[in-house]
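name: query_chain
kind: protein
chains: 1
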Amino acid sequence: MTTTITKILSGPLSMFGAKVQIAALEKGIQFELTMVPFTKDDAYEPRHPDVLRINPVKQQVPVLIDGEVELFDSTQIFEYLEDRYPNPALWPEGIAGRARARQLEHKSDEVFFPNVIRLFGLQNDMQSAPAVAACTACARYYAEMEGLLATHDYLAGRYSFADIAFYMACIFADRKGAAMTDATPRLVAWRDRVRDRPAVHAVVEPMMKFLASQGRGVPAFLQR
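structure:
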């Protein structure tokens, strides 16, 4: 049986908005999706009034509106969705297992992804010291995740929010020149498993079509 929330506000190239959309679809939640205005300069202009009202300081998507509940930040929205719609669960069972998965989701956003952000604007200067350092840091993180997959198919044991978060970060890393390689075969296989989930495909395919419509590169593993 499906359940319904009011609205998710995202953007056509919002990695964090895509995380929330995927989570909602995985849980079978029906929602109204609003894509806020987006310019060719990667600016979300003009700012959507609901985004300004609910997230006035950062003025960023995603934003969730569910009755009287109004939230921003993908991780906070993850937690709300898990409490509000506990089945199917997207955190592992057990306090320790959930803690490990939450740590992985946090590291994806706050440890791995900042290296990708450093590559923005450096695609024509990938041999520069900042670009090389960022790519090296990404490769080091890939190796760490490869180790986690030695005994199971997903980062925290079973499929979870941690996988959603890191998968989306990997797409942006690939786009910016820090793709994973055959040095991490288990991680490549994990990426393909996540890619092929219906909820993930439903969110990522429109994003890739948007990229292609603007003449921007689409990662090779998503060109099918």
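note: The chain is about 50% helix and 10% strand.
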